[in-house]
Input
Amino acid sequence: MNFISTADVTGKELASILSAATLGKKQGWKPKLKGKTVGLLFFNPSLRTRTSFQAGLIKLGSVPIALSATDSWALELIDGSIMDGSTAEHVKDAARVLSTYLDAICIRSFPGMKDWDDDKKDALIQGFAKHATVPVINMESCLWHPCQALADALTMQEVLGKTKGKTFVLSWANHPRQLPMAVPNSALLIAAQMGMNVRLACPKGYELDSDILNQVKQTAVKQGGSFSTHNDQAEAFKGAQIIYAKSWTPPVLVGKPDEDTKLRKKLSWTITKEKMAMTNNAAFMHCLPVRRNVVVTDEVLDSKQSVIIQQAENRMHSQNALLLKLLGGKSKSK
Ligand code: CP
Output
């Protein structure tokens, strides 16, 4: 089984991962993955993902092997290509070779942010998923950040108790740079999977990919929740129990950084104490790293409503529960 998006697990599996994470967090982790070796391939920077996977795997008795993109060869992703350019190794060879050494392959690979149709293929992680013979775990790709979403789910459960029927707002926020959509996509999907009333708050023109939004809407309805989009931040915040802030570049502005920057400069979507006061005493969430006093004010980040450190801590516990689910058995199969 691979874990590319949280849609790869059923409601029952999600509940069981969260329950194992809660237990491990409370009682401590036992070395149940002794003898298992997990590869962590980073094509982009990371603080939380890298450290939480390494620390978590060590607690489980496993041996993590972390590789940065500069440690390895440039990978070719296109099948049948004549490799006389800059790429030195095909993903089909790299994935099959690594599968002989490792019990799972975890990958972080951000989008190029030049062409959304190209980014949307999520070619690197899909290439590994196609050719590896061991589980592939997504540590943030072009489309999804499912491990972040598991930690978000655990945090919301801790904060709210029952999540079904509660109001979750994903709010776009100011940021000086163009950013990917993996975190907002995954945050919306996990909230929908948890049966929440999901609101997307963003300036007009900053809507996420329509295929992703359709998936979120269908999932929310199936789980007894709802989905709505709001271009008015105040309207979306009214009565909310979770405010999840994140900046992103919408599909229509991918590859157009100058246009995006010009538009962003006119927007006032920073999360403030005054905006949080419109909610139903909502918890404030962000995946981190966060640009203080641009995305959200210090006052909100350092308030009692902020659960950002709990959320980051939960990365390790929810990932450990996932790793046990994928690798806890005896057989080495996909
Ligand atoms: N939230 C998150 O994935 O953090 P890092 O980019 O530091 O890993």
